Amino acid sequence: MLYKEPAPIKDRENPFESMMSRFNIAAEVLGLDEETYNVLKSPTRQVIVNVPVTMDDGKVRVFEGYRVIHSTILGPSKGGIRYAPDVFLDEVKALAAWMTWKCAVVDIPYGGAKGGIICDPYSMSSGEIERLTRAYTSSLVDIFGPDQDIPAPDMGTGPREMAWLMDEYSKTKGSTVHAVVTGKPLVLGGSLGRVEATGRGVMVSALAAMDKLGMDPSKSTAVVQGFGNVGAWAAKLMAERGVKILGVSDVSGAYWNDNGIDIEEAIRYKNNNNGRLQGFQGAEMMDSDDLLTANVDVLVPAAVEDVITIHNVDKIQARLIVEGANGPTSYKADNIINEKGIMVVPDILANSGGVTVSYFEWVQNRMGFKWTLQRVNDRAERYMKEAFERVYAASQKYEVPMRIAAYIVAIDKVAMTYKYRGGF
Ligand code: NAD
User: Fold this and answer.
1) Does position 9 have pLDDT exceeding 60, yes or no?
2) Any catalytic annotation for residue 114?
3) H or E segment and range at residue 406
4) Which end of the chain has fewer CB atoms within 10 angstroms, the N or the C?
5) Residue 10 predicted with pLDDT over 90
6) Ligand 1 center from residue 155 Cα (angstroms)
7) Is residue 351 within 6 Å of ligand 1 at its C-beta?
């Protein structure tokens, strides 16, 4: 497994408040009625589990875990599981709601959920993580299910944990249930194209936004914060479309090259260097804070939350921000971004390529069939482009920034579904 370490959070706000402040604006613009507002603002279900796990030293430790289901009105709930020492319920609640909006924006038949376990996976052995994952799964076996709630990886988890989850769930049910979880290894029914799906969606939405702004990709420059799954793929695919990537960064620092960084070379280097860019010779090192405010056309934050804040937003020079990460912009910075006339492709749109291909994985599992990479990529691109156009049209219609427009599209779809289904 690649070396990873928890990222420093610079200016963390309460993520639930952050989500609600945007939700409130969109609800007001949309004229959402009070009943539906009240239904949507709270999760339908919040489960807290305490799971005992035997550690390698023979002692039993109890871990607190969560699964929050925000909504199932559009279909079974979908959302990742985060393993981190600082996971807290409000964060999981916000992330679960974000998943509802994300699935609605990209028009896939899922509700939103999220899970988390307070643990430090980087200081635990593989055996300890396996026992923890299995214990968490068995305590939530009545919640999870291919027609109920479908987990996926998030920070601190990956295909390995999803394989254990699928195995534990299947054992309890007495038969192999591939579709209970997505983001699985290919051999266990994972989908081709899932690994690069989020970065590919970031590229597709960046190009769609550049088109609206009249920017020529081959004459544009960009920086990408975060060089993990999302950032590295977004940088590679944008560079392939002609965008010059002048700067990239990861936990080891920020790297700059006036002539454009050779992204293929940077990825090769990172893959041979425990997943980090430290020591990369194809660029000069620069101050990480300056990367975000560099003189480029496009800024892609693809690392952690709350990196664009009231402390640096004034200095941002990019005309376009494409949010690969979840929640990289603090809600307090929104107004200044809007005043500066910067277009933001918000997280719930820009990084929804990942959940879209997760949906394709679930569809393939249920069909008992495997699609080609071409089919996965073509369909994911279509979903992303259509979602972008829906959000752009709403931003024009309601004269609101793209972020609020994305919430409007999502809330409208969920509210309409409630209206048709009725029942409260
Ligand atoms: P990852 O762990 O693969 O990569 C994270 C990258 O960010 C690493 O290169 C790390 O070194 C870097 N990083 C961490 N802290 C940093 C900091 N303070 N400054 C600069 N770089 C820093 O994670 P990922 O899967 O690429 O996810 C990145 C973001 O995208 C997260 O917000 C995640 O929730 C979001 N996201 C991921 C997916 C997905 O499919 N992987 C889907 C939707 C959203």
Assistant:
1) no
2) yes
3) helix 402-421
4) C
5) no
6) 8
7) yes
Residue boundaries of the structural domains of the chain: 43-175, 197-350
Average pLDDT over residues 148-164: 95
Residues 6+ apart with CB under 8 A from 252: 276, 277, 278
Q: How many CA atoms lie within 13 A of 142 on its CB side?
A: 4
Tokens of 265: 């070379």
Q: Name the active-site residue from 114, 236, 244, 270.
A: 114
Is there a contact between 192 and 376 (Cβ–Cβ < 8 Å)? yes
pLDDT digits (tens, 9 = 90+) for 364-402: 999 999 999 999 999 999 999 999 999 999 999 999 999
Domain 43-175 has CATH 3.30.420.40: no
Give pLDDT tens digits for 235-247: 999 999 999 999 9
CATH class of 197-350: alpha beta
CA distance linking residue 145 with residue 347, whole number of Å: 27
Distance 325 CA to ligand 1 centre (A): 6
% of the chain residues with pLDDT over 90:
91
- The answer, yes or no, to whether any atom of ligand 1 lies below 6 A from the CB of 16, is no
Tokens 């934050």 map to which residue? 301
Verify whether ligand 1 is closer than 6 Å to residue 182 (CB atom). no
Residue that the structure tokens 């069909």 belong to = 367
CA of 274 to the centre of ligand 1 (A): 15
**Residue 324: CB within 6 Å of ligand 1?**
yes
Atom number of ligand 1 nearest to Cα 307 = 18
